Amino acid sequence: MKYMMFVCSDTEPDTDTAQLPDIEAWVTRNDEAGRRLDGSVLAPTTASTTVRVRDGRLLVSDGPFTESKEVILGFDLLECADLDEAIEVARSHPMARMGRIELRPLAELDD
């Protein structure tokens, strides 16, 4: 099953002083196991563009549409046997401690 893993900031990071997992090791381990299909860090929210259509009119604005203290910093596309495996993959990501991880299964659309 495929999961989109959103890597997000959080206003309340973990206070544990233990060393964070190494992100490069996390990427290598999950790439080699075939669990991580793709992923990237995103540019800062100041580089974002919001696109909307209202009453047939295109509305484009610079930056995020809303101000938020918690933002999506990056993503990883995972292929896991089930949600339990996806949770274990997310659990070992450094941002699970410094931020938060959102897992969302990809919907299977009917043709």
Automatic annotation (TrEMBL):
YCII-related domain ranges (all copies): 1-108
Pfam families: YCII
Protein name: YCII-related domain-containing protein
InterPro entries: Dimeric_a/b-barrel, YCII
Biological classification of the source: Bacteria, Bacillati, Actinomycetota, Actinomycetes, Streptosporangiales
Protein family (similarity comment): Belongs to the YciI family.
Organism the protein comes from: Sphaerisporangium rubeum
